[in-house]
Amino acid sequence: MSTDSLTPSAPPDGLPPDLHIDTLAVRVAVPRSQWGEHSEALYLTSCFVQPDAETSARRFAMQGEGYTYTRTSNPSVTSFERRLAALEGAENAIATASGMSAILLMGMGLLKSGDHVICSQSMFGSTIKLFGSDFAKFGVQTTFVSQTDVAEWRAAVRPNTRLLFAETPTNPLTEVCDIAALASIAHDAGALLAVDNVFATPVLQKPLALGADLVIHSGTKFLDGQGRVMAGAICGPRQYIDQVFAPLIRSAGMVLSPFNAWVVQKGMETLGIRVKAQSANALQLAQWLERHPAVERVVYPGLPSHPQHALAMAQQSDIGGSVIAFAVRADSPEQARVRAFHVVDSCRVCSIATNLGDVKTLISHPASTSHGRLSEAQRQAAGVTQGLLRLSVGLEHVPDIQADLARGLDSLGEARNP
Ligand SMILES: *Cc1c(COP(=O)(O)O)cnc(C)c1O
User: What is the pTM of this model?
Assistant: First the structure.
């Protein structure tokens, strides 16, 4: 967004080139104020005083540098945007109130009535709702295709296809799609590829380097990492961020609060170590779950048993991430639900909650929560069965989490209808 006119005491713009992502995550910010604060300043203000009427007019016309009103831009928000853009290797980023509002902004900015979108059928539940029902109301058609079958994506292309939207790995089944292959399908069709990078984060996966045009983030998840605030963003070329999305958010208003931007920006300073440590914990738990007799299957990209293990390892820096899906053994969907609920209710350490990417381990039952609003057919298509549980692995000591899950899994014979 617009650069600010503060006098820098130690300009981060003076950082040398080619810094590692861990350095960027700690160092990229807007210039310090005249006070030289070491921690990034929080600009909790809804408007900005203008030096004179002429400057004010220029800024409102989006011509000069400087800030006017926080719905247009705010230095704390800009600071978060610059840091995230640096991590994704993007020219720029625009922050939004939540991950879903980033997707809404993208759809409003790129699509008009009569346009066509291709989307994986395994996307985040609210994304399926937004494209399948809400955008449909405005005459935008969406075809939902298999997450992993590249031929299906290609076959779905129409003359009016404007956008391919993928998420990898997906929620909750961690299905992996081939970003480079989808980028070439999109570009052959004269369309854009957007990738929801919430699960992998730029620490594990850089969609733009693989050919994607835009990256979607929910800052609510790993970027904050401590489950405190809602946030979202779109990363990409200035041609879209500055020319399409920035003017639109000024009218549409789904802006990120400066306070939330500040919290997420501070959270990003530990993103690298958190993602790697939580992924290492997840791998250990996935290996243990795979050996447990009460578990029917475990889906985790870091396990050789994962259907797209090789692709995941190539695309995700050899790391499986920190989300595991596993299904309990059962004879019927009814029994599976009762047993899955028993495992959830036996937990005393893991939180029963549907967020992910938190340093606290969370357990959830997707069929009755994140995917509860979908029809049974949509749920089946997404592979969300009644026995399926999702674990977002945190930073606790692994044996403690293992014991917490074992309490329920070892006593499944006692699971009763409530
Ligand atoms: C949570 C999530 C979103 C939506 O983000 P919010 O900040 O909750 O609006 C989008 N995509 C994925 C993959 C998510 O996990």
Answer: 0.94
Q: Label residues 346-370 b or e (16+ Cβ within 10 Å = b).
A: bbebbbeebbbbbbbbbbbbbbeeb
Q: How far apart (Å, rounded) are the C-alpha atoms in residues 7 and 34? A: 6
Residues of the chain with CATH 3.90.1150.10: 271-414
Of residues 334, 325, 322, the one with CA closest to residue 386: 334
Interval between CA 39 and ligand 1 midpoint (Å): 28
Comparing C-alpha atoms, which of 390, 338, 385 is closest to residue 364?
Answer: 390
Q: Which of 80, 216, 218 to mutate to test the pocket of ligand 1 (most atoms within 8 A of CB)?
A: 218
Tens of pLDDT, residues 231-278? 999 999 999 999 999 999 999 999 999 999 999 999 999 999 999 999
Instruction: Kindly report the CATH number that applies to the domain delimited by 21-268.
Output: 3.40.640.10
Select from 124, 138, 257 the least CA-distant residue to 194: 124
Residue nearest to ligand 1 atom 8, measured at CA: 99
CATH class label, 271-414: alpha beta
